[in-house]
Amino acid sequence: MTSESTLAFIAAVLSAALAVAAVLRNRRGGAAWWFALGMFGLALDSVLTGVCLSVIGLEKLAFWQEWALILKAFLAVIWLAFAVTYSRGDAGESFRRWRILIAIACLLPVAAFVGFRGDLIQVLVRPNSTDLWISFNSAGKIVNVAILVGTVLVLMNLERTFRAAVGTMQWRIKFLVLGLAVIFFTRIYTRSQALVYSGHNNSLTEVEVIGLLVGCALLAVGYLRSRFREIDVYPSRAVLHTSITVLLVGGYLFIIGVLAQIVARYGGAASFQLQAFVVLVAIALLAVLLLSEKIRQRIKRFVSRHFSRPQYDFRIIWTQFTQATSSAIDDPTLCAASAKLISETFNVLSVSVWLFDEEKNKLRLEASTSRARNAMSDDAIEFSAIDPGLTKMRKAFDLEKIKDDWGRTLRQISKTQFSEGGNRAGVPLLAGDRYLGLIILADRVNGVPYTVEEIELRNHARQRAGSVSNHLGLFRARLKECRFHA
């Protein structure tokens, strides 16, 4: 057994362990079973890679490489089914929209196995070299194209889910999405190499093993942070038209392609896997940093402090708010758009919008960046507001300092995710002297206190909130005078 095959078997064990962990954590979730099946498939694929790296005979290598190629095609189907259902509030409908494509993609490897088995791959010894070359016939190239397209679709759907999430919900799924992105980007590279050169060196499959190891490390972090808990988001189909997946795929292929040429000319093929590993780790770390709310907040504050640039541009924020609420037709939609904008503007992971029902004299949670939408129907997030101390609040307050019963109730319902997120703050929603509801802000990144500039932004919101009524029907007219009262 070689060192390369040992790494493959280690990656297989890690993949299988993550599959078991996901199922034990969430046995009822359909996406959890797709994830487990996909991780077991990756484990089996890694085992086949280890076998191929250990086999010397040409016929045996061709046999195992064909099985590995067919398995990769099935894996693309499994992970596409996972990507279109994972953390989707409309998982059933989303799967139905993709079911025909998934069925066609599932039939392709079956057809390749039945009709072209033994004629997908040829193993050759390159002239003046001892390296084994895996050459693909026409049917093998078609399977590679299908794998490449399916992998890109997987990444695009994961991107849709991630971009639709906000605040705490995005934090929960970040490392799972990053881990899978690393795994599939490496496979996009290896499949594209196989297509460009009509084959690849047997050692190139080591790159997939490296990608799987790095991806499993990120997935393990995701499991430790959130136990693979799902969220429920409803991504817009328009996100597909603005997807950055294709851009990232192109950039990755360019970087690795240039690296491969440099290594081939100066470093030799033996050092390529090590350098590819370094690039993979560097890209994964860069992605983690770019998606870190703490890093983004520190950069923004550094620029504001040292280059005299204001943290917030009122015109940009209100343009974003107008665009986000222009299609709102009911209370939940408007509240969800408002919660998302507040979360992104103030670096607050958990934003909850409560509306006051005068007839029932109750506060009801209409939108939150830390709760799934389907959980909003639970009566547990509606409570009595008969205490006059709550409805008479006219200024922002520190929820931790409220000793009344309603304060304890809100603290119990609005639980925090991070101990370093600072005190929870409440901001009453007012229309003149009329009490409309409440916004609770919790889990602020790094627990940074609110600045004078942010208080001024709330005051500016009071001056501009009347313009919302021009876009919203009956509910918009109701909020014509609505403002955040600092």
Question: Can you summarize this structure?
Answer:
The protein is an alpha+beta fold and 486 residues long. It has helices spanning 3-25, 30-54, 58-83, 91-116, 138-164, 168-196, 205-226, 245-267, 272-290, 293-306, 314-325, 331-346, 388-391, 405-413, 452-464, 474-478, and strands spanning 121-125, 132-136, 199-201, 348-357, 362-368, 382-384, 397-398, 425-431, 434-444, 482-484.
Overall pLDDT level: 75
Helix and strand content put the structural class at: alpha+beta
In whole angstroms, how far apart are the ends?
68 Å
User: Total strand count, please?
Assistant: 10
The number of domains is 2
| Radius of gyration based on Cα positions | 26 Å
Topology as a string of helices (H) and strands (E): HHHHEEHHEHHHHHHEEEHEHEEHHE
Oligomer: single chain
Report the principal-axis shape. elongated
Share of residues in helices = 55-70%
Proportion in β-strands: 5-15%
- Total number of helical segments? 16
Biggest β-sheet strands, sense, barrel: 7 strands, antiparallel
